Each structure stands twice: as C-alpha cells, then as structure tokens.
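Q: My labmate handed me this sequence with no annotations at all. I'd like to see what the chain might look like in three dimensions before we decide whether it's worth expressing. Could you predict it?
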Amino acid sequence: MIPSFTLNDLYTILPMLVVMITGMAALMVDLGLPRDRKSPVVVVSFIGLMISAWAAGWLWGQERAGFGGTIVADDFALAFQFILLIVAALSIALSERYVQTKGINYGEYYALMLFSTSGAMLMAASRELINIFIGLEILSIALYVLSGFARTEARSEEAAMKYFLLGAFSSGFFLYGIALIYGGTGTTRLDMLTRLSPPELASPFTVAGFALLIVGLGFKAAIVPFHSWTPDVYEGAPTSVTAFMSVGAKAGAFAAFIRVVSTLLPLSRDYPAVYGGFADALWILAVLTMIVGNVLAVVQSNIKRMLAYSSIAHAGYILVGLLAQNAEGHAGVLFYVLAYAFMNLGAFGILILLARRGAEPVTMDDLQGLAYRQPWVAGLMAVFMLSLGGIPPTVGFMGKFFLFIAAVHAQQYALAVIGLVASVIGVFYYLNVIVRMFFRPALREYPANVWRFAPLADGAIWVSAIATLVLGIYSAGVYNIATTGALALESPAASAPLTASAPAPVKRASVR
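A: Here is what I predict for the chain of 512 residues:
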C-alpha cells in the first residue's frame, strides 16, 4: 500500500524539506561548473536557506503536526530550526574562500552542509524516536564526510575515521535503546510514553532503553564521559567544518535531548523508585561536563583543541537549563544555543580569516602580538572570547544568566553555584588568549592586512560580532521569542496527539 500524504504533512516538514531540496539542487548546479568557480552553488544555498527561513516564519504560531503526530511544527521546533538556518548560513559564508585556500572547493561540500542541517532540523521537529534516529543519521553521515574533506591531510582523514567509528558506535546505542523501549511499551512515540500504565513504564526494557538514549545523544552533544572524540575531531577537521560541527551538531542533539528529557524527567517525579536515578545521573553529567571541559581547556596549547574542550563545557551549561525542568530553563537553552552560535562561529571565523592568507594559527603562541599587526582582528577575537567567558555586556553573559537563574528558580542551587565556579575557570583561558594577543610580543609574522575581497566570510564575522554585542544589551526581545518556543513544549498539546490519525501504542503483555 502506497502511503498517502496530506497538505498538512507537507506544511509540517516544509522548512527542512526546502533545505534538503536545496542540497540536491546544489549538487545539480555543481555538475556544470569548473572546480574554481563555485559561487553559483553558494548562491543557490543561500536562496534555499532564505526560503526555508520564510517557511519557518510562516508556520510560527500555527502549532501544526503531521504524519500522525510524529513530526511537529510547534514553536519549539521552529525556534531551533531558525537557529540551525542561521548556523548554516554563517558556516557557508565562512567557508566560501577558506575551501579555495585549502584546495577543497567542491560543490558537494555545500550540499553536505545543507543535508546535515536538514537532519538536525528533523531531530528538532520529531517526537517519534525513529524519526529522531533518522535525523541523527542524516546529520552524522554528512559530518563524517565533511570531517575528512581535506583528503590530502592525514589529520583530516584521522578525524573522519575516529568520528565515524565512535559515531557509529553511539548510533548503535541509540538504536538499541529505541528497540528496548518498543519492547517494553509497544511504542516509540514520546508523547505516548507519558500516558502509559505503570507496568509498562516499569519494564526493565524501558528503563534500559532510556539509559541508552542518553548515551547516544550524549555523544553527539559532547557530554562527559562521551566526549573523547571531540578534541581530536575538532583539531583534525577543516576549520570551517569544525565551526559548523561545533554548533550545528550540538543544536540538533540538544533539541532531541530536550524532547527526550522532557519525557524522562516527569517520569522520575511520578515513578521515583524506577526513574528517580535518571535525574541524579543527569545532574552528575552536567557537573562533570562543566568541570572537566573547563579544566582540560586550561591546559591546552592548540587553539582548536581549546575551543573543543570549551564546547564541552558549554554543553554542561546547557544541561543546567534542561535540569531546571521548566519553561524558563528551556527558553534559556534556546537563547544560549543562539548566543553560542554567534560567539563560537565568530571565534572560528577569525581563525579562518587568518588562514586565508596562509597564516592560520595552530597554537596559542601563534596569536601572540596579533594586535600589533591586526588590531581589528584581535579586537573582534577579544569580543568573542569575552562572550564565551560570560563577561558582560556580551550575549554570553546573558545566556549564562538565563540558564543559571532558571536553575535557581527550580531550587537547583548547588547546580547553579557549580556552574558559576566552572564559568570562572573558563574565564582564565579565554583571557589568556586576549593577553597573548595584546600584551605579548609576536612570535610569528602576520601579513599587514588579512582582510581581502571576501564579502561573505568577512560579513559573517562582523554579523557575529555585532550580534554578540547587540543581543547582550538588548536580549529581552529574543528571550521572549525563546520563551514562546519553550511554552510550546510545555503546553498540553505537546504531549497529546495533534491529529486524529495518531496511532495508539501496541500492547505487549509478554514483556511486562
């Protein structure tokens, strides 16, 4: 029987469908272009991203659900999709001249970035575990290839192999978790799981399944102790790919993480004897991720490895918002992911800017004295470092404020205090970069002017810097939008089937 699709189903997946079609169009356009002329592919990519953003804006507030309620276009999903579209646009802009410099100027580079974005968007919109897994694989497979795109560099090939092997292993955990949950409950629908009877929820299959889901998503989000791949992959992959991976993969993983945890944590309150340990386990993971990420970042001499461990610490901050278990915490997560996108992509953008003139910094020493040759570049890097450290009046400060105040309001006082202490540790290595650029003598020669005609890449850096400062000062509007998205997740409709065709769970008495 051929499945039928309604117009509502099409509307529900419209933003991610546009991105997927754009990726295919980019491949077709690339067929007729010489290798040294990929600008039309970039133009097609931007047109597709703008159409997708328009579609997401049109769907805002409609609270649609399609495919039997398994995929939703609620404001929570759309907010994450907006962020992912911004990440994709900035990453493509930063990549345009960099891939020419590195000799990897292939049209499929942009197509893979678009496919990866569509997978992350699907993860944000899914409340069916199998759909989340499909989105996870679309996201991951594209990133595996992108990590090894610099085929002439051994480090890039090593990064791709490590990422593929460990990523496939984590995907196996996630898929096995889905199988166990289905074996225990007869459904893989997250909204259905909250309404099952105690015997089904108390099944050891169900409990073990949820644990494996946490492991699988924890790998993609780089949560300790599932973080070991992060520094090696970030260091070896092309810098433009690392920039996209550090935000895009994390955003998609945390969108799905929130969907899963929003199902799991209420169960820990309703059935503490069975699920009570999950809340404690997530609390420990958040603490370990913040502390380990920041402490290991302090001792790094390689810039990309420092930013890798920094990204691990930021994953811990985001977990603080999840553990608040309220709309305020989820709004804080949305705001922080957007903030992290601008400040982290901006920091990698500076590395890409320097690489365009053959002066890509590798170690901290390479940045010494940068302010004497390139004061504007050093100044922009300082803005991004201050924001990553959470120094006011940057957007990083407001992002941490929203996360930690949500934890305080949820009476998670210890978690908020630990987060503040971890942030102080983080300030040390961010300020170390600034001190080296402004107050240490140069150990290498930089060109007198690294800015050259690359309007997309240079514009992406300036947009990131302006957003980092403006959103830090005028954050109320964006936070209100994030709150609207969070309330969509908290609303009764979020846990109820939104279409009449939503299937009921299958009763499986044999596993009770």
